[in-house]
Amino acid sequence: MRWLKRLAVTVTALLAGPLLVAACGPVDLGGDWRTADRSSAGLAPDPAAHPEAVVQIYAARAFRWRGVFAVHTWLAIKPRGAPHYTIHEVLGWRARAGGSAVASYPGVPDRRWYGADPEVVVEIRGAEAQALIPRIEAAVRDYPDGARYVIWPGPNSNTFVAHVAREVPGLGVDLPPTAIGKDFLADGRLFAPAPSNTGWQISLFGVLGLLVALEEGVEINVLSLSLGVDPLDLAVRLPGIGRVGLGS
Predict the structure, then answer these.
(1) pLDDT for the residue 215
(2) What pLDDT score was predicted for residue 222?
(3) Cα distance between residue 110 and residue 165, in whole Å
(4) Which of helix, strand or coil describes residue 172?
(5) pLDDT value at position 23?
(6) How many CB atoms lie within 10 A of CB 106?
(7) What value, to the nearest 5°, has the Cα angle with vertex 121 and ends 182 and 230?
(8) Contact 24, 40 (CB under 8 A)
(9) Poorest-pLDDT segment among 9-13, 21-25, 72-76
(10) CA torsion angle 201 205 174 70 (round to 10)
(11) pTM, whole model, 2 decimals?
(12) 145: Cβ–Cβ under 8 A, 6 or more apart, which residues?
């Protein structure tokens, strides 16, 4: 049947990237979280040498098999003159233990995520960062899904960072297509700004949707796997692999 052929083509296109990552990508499928590397990657400005305010968003491959499909994202902020960074992220084990999944604590902002090297998604410094920090902290406090955590399709760590990004337009965040959960919209909404706030998206509980924005381009979400094109940066957005192109 014709619809079966179309379904097979769609599934093949969505799974090709994750399968390639599993076969030859940077994911350790047999890692042990107790011994995994959690050291600094050297990406964050040293507070002692850089007193200006800093706002950063990081992404790193999720742990073990989850890293084939997705990254984990988190925020790090340092007000002007602060001696350390404060990290804001969502951790599933906290929700499963009966508390809030949202964790805010002083620490190393660019730690490897259980062996996976982080990358900087956004970095803002100086007066602009200082002005954004109170708004970021308010968005963290107002996150509506703190009591829940669901790996797929959300709400999860990427849902949290996307929520903060939508609430703080000045961040201008283009989250990776591998940030599964970013399209899960809070409060059961079907329509919302894109995380970058340069366009809009429609999403059916994070499993089916369409995003159109200047920063992200055009992205289709099927079963939380995102496939798209970013014409302004001559890039493609691929499930499992991420963003590939001149602006990568």
Answers:
(1) 96
(2) 94
(3) 19
(4) coil
(5) 82
(6) 12
(7) 70
(8) no
(9) 9-13
(10) -150
(11) 0.94
(12) 101, 155, 159, 160, 163, 186
CA distance 204 to 185: 8
Q: Measured between alpha carbons, how far apart are the two ends of the chain, in Å?
A: 39
Higher pLDDT, 2 or 97: 97
Q: What is the average pLDDT value for the chain, to the nearest integer?
A: 93
DSSP strand E in the chain: where?
54-61, 71-78, 85-90, 102-107, 119-125, 191-193, 199-203, 208-213, 217-222, 225-230, 235-238, 242-245
**Distance of alpha carbon 180 from alpha carbon 174, whole angstroms:** 13
Comparing 112 with 2, the larger pLDDT belongs to 112
Task: Give the tokens for residue 32.
Answer: 């042990």
Look up residue 197 and give its two tokens.
């706030």
Cβ atoms of 175 and 73 closer than 8 Å: yes
